[in-house]
User: Which sequence fits this backbone?
């Protein structure tokens, strides 16, 4: 308890500041809560409205598709032989009645909305039904439909007739709502021979259209043009006339096919969305009750606002208290600063915060300047001594030993060894960072190297210019494994802390000061083999011992293979040849590798130029700029990928040039066909003379560009011209065949029917409008 009290007393200012931030945060949260709550409630209202409107539109689309397809299907069935026999037959035997009953049953089973199908024969007063066997008018169970048939004006007033009916068929009772469709021919407002009646189950239709959309907040309905309810979420309103309702009357009077009405019904806000279907003669209406829909949203909004108001009150009271606690001591400090000698002018017109900030910044700058002056002088002298030591730019060994002593390098030593770190992806780093930032990154790597190196040997690291960081180790000659471990730890730590990759190498052991430049040169030469080992690698000092020169008898044929593959346009073969070339380079000395790479670049560039007919301006790759790019890559893998890209670009450029030429040739062939299609002797061989190509090659480029064969294009064009002549002239078909280059009349008839599905004469008769000589 005492420790806690002591902590709070010692850190009272910190605690006050934290509490002040806390209450300011609560104040901001409360304000945001008010704004967000208002925005969310409005957004939810808009989203819910759009959701219900989309739901109604989906219902409309469902009904439109279902009912139209059903109507068309049964209209087609109305003309079938068995249905027509039910109207016009004079003698109904058992087989005929069986076929009619089976036809009606099959029709009823084709759609789950269909309740039943009747065939009413008024001449013989018989009714065939999909639910029972044939009945006379007196025995038929659905007398309501017979009464409707007596007045055909009722059936003709609308395509779909809603009705409520109840009957018993085969001891099976039915009491519900049906939507009937009558297919019949009338004369003097009376049905001639009878009608086919399709009865749709209203409840099934309602469930299919409105499933998942009905609730207390949303009601959906379908009205006909007289305002009578066809379908409704509330079954009690079906077949009711609600045209007297003000919103419904407004919808009926509207000429728009769809729209939205905002209105109040019984003191509550309603959003009514409607769509009128011309094909069905129905109106789809969705009614959103905002009061019910947003009741939970409004309750939650009220609760949030109440809690927010309480929080605001607490924040205001507490904020005043803590502000007074914090500001009191600061105010007294400001008054004391203003009383200091010489501060009257500097504090005039300056805010209290600026006054305190300036005072603290002044003291901080003074301390930093002192530290930087001391550290900068030491680092500058240290780096200068190390650079001279590595370069051999000194004459007096005694003087150099004295300068080394001043920077902490004490002699005598068992020897020296130079290690080198090279920043990977230096070009990307140079683009991402300023020179000062890069210097700081290298300074950080040098610090890591010093810290880790000193756990093994005395180590001194510094910026070696460009992408290099140099490490000078004071060590004996027998410690190769420890060097490997040291550099591996430096690489891992650099990756972990700075998120940078470095490659590492080391030089030969130097027994005295004079041999240190040789050790540096060996480390540098080894570091160049990052080109082979890859980024983040470790390169030993003896890397060049087992490397062998590559004779021209090996490299020259491989270069020729790459050039030949490019000329053939085989990108895959070219990539394989380049890959083999780079595998050969893996074992070569560095200088020879770069020589061969420059030689390969010259070969690829020269080949690309010959493939592009000397024009490489579109690629922007001249030999000078490519030579500069070559030395930017850090690994052979990157170079290989770059060379493959150069080769593929050259192949693609030549292919594009060839493709454009082929397009012109194909266009020339089309024009020749359009002008000479009437010539019966027009052949592929003649066209090859026009194109100046061999027949097979001409066929190939024509199909590659048009996706159709040359012979098919000629015949299709002739048949299209024949169609045009058949519709616009009264010439006989055999004459038209001759006019489009087909002298053989029989071949023309057979080929035309195969092309269009009809003979020429049938095509002319069946096409509209027919030819007129006027």
Assistant:
């Amino acid at each position: 308890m005492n420790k806690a009290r002591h902590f709070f007393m010692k850190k009272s200012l910190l605690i006050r500041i934290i509490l002040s931030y806390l209450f300011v945060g609560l104040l901001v949260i409360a304000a945001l809560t008010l704004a967000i709550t208002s925005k969310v409630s409005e957004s939810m209202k808009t989203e819910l409205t759009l959701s219900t409107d989309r739901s109604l539109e989906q219902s409309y689309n469902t009904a439109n598709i279902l009912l139209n397809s059903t109507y068309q299907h049964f209209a087609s069935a109305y003309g079938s032989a068995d249905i027509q026999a039910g109207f016009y037959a004079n003698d109904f035997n058992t087989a005929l009645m069986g076929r009619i009953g089976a036809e009606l049953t099959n029709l009823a089973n084709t759609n789950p909305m269909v309740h039943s199908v009747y065939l009413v024969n008024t001449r013989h007063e018989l009714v065939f039904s999909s639910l029972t066997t044939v009945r006379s008018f007196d025995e038929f169970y659905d007398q309501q439909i017979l009464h409707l048939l007596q007045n055909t004006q009722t059936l003709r007033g609308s395509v779909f007739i809603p009705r409520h009916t109840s009957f018993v068929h085969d001891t099976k009772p039915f009491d519900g709502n049906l939507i009937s469709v009558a297919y019949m021919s009338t004369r003097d407002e009376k049905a001639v021979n009878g009608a086919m009646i399709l009865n749709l189950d209203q409840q099934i239709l309602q469930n299919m259209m409105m499933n998942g959309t009905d609730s207390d907040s949303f009601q959906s309905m379908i009205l006909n043009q007289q305002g009578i309810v066809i379908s409704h979420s509330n079954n009690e309103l079906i077949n009711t006339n609600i045209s007297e309702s003000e919103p419904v009357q407004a919808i009926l009077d509207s000429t728009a096919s769809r729209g939205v009405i905002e209105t109040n019904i019984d003191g509550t806000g309603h959003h009514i969305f409607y769509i009128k279907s011309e094909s069905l003669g129905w109106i789809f209406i969705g009614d959103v009750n905002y009061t019910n829909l947003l009741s939970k949203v409004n309750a939650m909004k009220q609760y949030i606002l109440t809690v927010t108001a309480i929080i605001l009150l607490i924040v205001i009271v507490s904020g005043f208290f803590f502000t007074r606690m914090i500001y009191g001591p600061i105010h007294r400090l400001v008054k004391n600063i203003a009383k200091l000698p010489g501060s009257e002018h500097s504090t005039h017109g300056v805010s209290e915060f600026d006054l305190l900030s300036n005072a603290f910044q002044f003291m901080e700058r003074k301390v930093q300047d002192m530290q930087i002056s001391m550290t900068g002088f030491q680092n500058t002298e240290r780096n200068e001594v190390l650079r001279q030591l590595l370069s051999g730019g000194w004459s007096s060994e005694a003087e150099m030993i004295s300068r080394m002593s001043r920077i902490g390098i004490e002699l005598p030593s068992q020897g020296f060894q130079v290690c080198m770190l090279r920043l990977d992806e230096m070009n990307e780093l140079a683009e991402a960072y300023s020179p000062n930032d890069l210097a700081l990154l290298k300074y950080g790597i040098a610090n890591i190297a010093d810290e880790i190196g000193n756990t093994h040997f005395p180590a001194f690291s510094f910026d070696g210019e460009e992408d290099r960081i140099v490490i000078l180790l004071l060590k004996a000659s027998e410690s190769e494994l420890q060097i490997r471990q040291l550099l591996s730890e430096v690489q891992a730590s650099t990756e972990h802390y700075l998120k940078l990759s470095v490659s590492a190498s080391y030089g030969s052991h130097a027994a005295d000061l004079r041999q240190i430049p040789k050790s540096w040169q060996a480390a540098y030469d080894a570091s160049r083999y990052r080109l082979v080992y890859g980024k983040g690698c470790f390169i030993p000092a003896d890397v060049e011992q087992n490397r062998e020169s590559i004779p021209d008898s090996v490299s020259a044929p491989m270069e020729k293979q790459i050039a030949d593959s490019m000329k053939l346009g085989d990108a895959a073969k070219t990539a394989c040849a380049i890959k083999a070339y780079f595998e050969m380079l893996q074992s070569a000395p560095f200088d020879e590798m770069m020589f061969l790479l420059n030689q390969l670049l010259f070969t690829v560039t020269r080949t690309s130029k010959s493939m592009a007919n000397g024009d490489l301006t579109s690629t922007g790759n001249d030999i000078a700029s490519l030579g500069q790019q070559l030395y930017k890559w850090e690994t052979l893998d990157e170079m290989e990928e770059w060379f493959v890209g150069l080769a593929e670009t050259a192949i693609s450029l030549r292919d594009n040039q060839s493709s454009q030429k082929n397009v012109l040739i194909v266009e020339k062939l089309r024009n020749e066909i359009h002008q000479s299609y009437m010539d019966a002797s027009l052949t592929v061989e003649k066209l090859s003379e026009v194109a100046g190509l061999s027949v097979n090659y001409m066929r190939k480029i024509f199909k590659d560009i048009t996706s159709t064969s040359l012979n098919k294009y000629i015949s299709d064009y002739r048949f299209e011209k024949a169609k045009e002549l058949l519709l616009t002239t009264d010439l006989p078909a055999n004459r038209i065949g001759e006019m489009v280059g087909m002298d053989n009349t029989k071949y023309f008839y057979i080929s035309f029917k195969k092309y269009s599905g009809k003979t020429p004469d049938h095509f002319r008769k069946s096409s509209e409008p027919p030819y007129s000589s006027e």
